[in-house]
Design goal:
With 128 residues, the chain is mainly α. It has helices spanning 3-22, 37-58, 67-88, 98-127. The protein has one domain (3-26, 36-127). Helix 1 (3-22) runs antiparallel to helix 2, helix 1 packs parallel to helix 3 and helix 3 (67-88) packs antiparallel against helix 4 (98-127).
């Protein structure tokens, strides 16, 4: 298997996992001991999804990063977050909410920030 196939497969698997979790009726997220803990869970889930999308579209090395590829990977993640919330509107006992979508997008944005920082560090060491 090539690395590209593995990175794409993990992205598809994570997409399926999110769909499966969103399709469970009356699912209550675990309480982390503070208000808005469900938003933190959303942000963490879509932080992971953002990383996954970037790996599938951009690959591993930072020199593969272009503006178009970043836009594509981000758009895929944001659209999936939106459709995930819309999907939950049709599941008994679940709600799709704008604040959950915002938390998802914050997680995606943080994944972009991490990728940018790590990419700069890797390129700095790689160059010399």
């Amino acid at each position: 298997m090539t690395l590209r196939i593995i990175l794409t497969a993990q992205f598809i698997a994570l997409s399926a996992l999110i769909y499966w979790l969103s399709d469970i009726p009356n699912l209550v997220p675990p309480y982390l001991g503070f208000d808005l803990s469900d938003k933190v869970i959303h942000a963490l889930a879509f932080f992971t999804y953002g990383i996954s999308s970037q790996l599938a579209v951009l690959g591993w090395m930072p020199n593969a990063v272009t503006g178009l590829r970043v836009t594509v990977s981000t758009s895929i993640a944001v659209m999936y977050a939106a459709t995930d919330e819309a999907h939950q509107l049709m599941v008994p006992g679940r709600t799709g909410a704008l604040d959950d979508f915002v938390a998802d997008c914050i997680g995606i944005a943080l994944s972009l920030l991490l990728r940018s920082i790590l990419g700069k560090i890797i390129l700095r060491f790689h160059r010399g």
